[in-house]
């Protein structure tokens, strides 16, 4: 049987939240065990495979892979999956959610003559709000 033993991002398991503007680097690490040693793959929940580094045998029954994202952006926010498969049993997987906080962005909008506090963007009225 092939089993994912450990799946982490920057040493944390479960989920991780980072700020996009902090230019964070994240490293996914997945270790799996099985007899025979399993193949280990990392992929996005959409199914897109990641080009992992390694597939390094820790011993004759273990394999470890890692994948690095050098500047996390909002496009990297998703669920990631590590799958262990040795073709003898049903593949085993573990997953991890990467959350990315995004800074507010300026909009290209204009004020109306009738009400300078109301903005129009693409036909939609946006009302300003905030602290005085």
Automatic annotation (TrEMBL):
InterPro entries: Cell_adhesion_signaling, Ig-like_dom, Ig-like_dom_sf, Ig-like_fold, Ig_sub, Ig_sub2
Pfam families for this protein: Ig_3
Keyword terms of this UniProt record: Disulfide bond, Glycoprotein, Immunoglobulin domain, Membrane
UniProt topology in membrane: Single-pass type I membrane protein
Main location group: membrane
Record keyword Nucleotide-binding present: no
Domain of life assignment: Eukaryota
Cell location: Membrane
Record has Membrane as a keyword: yes
PROSITE patterns, sorted: IG_LIKE
CC annotations in GO: membrane
Ranges of residues in domain Ig-like: 2-103
Protein name: Ig-like domain-containing protein
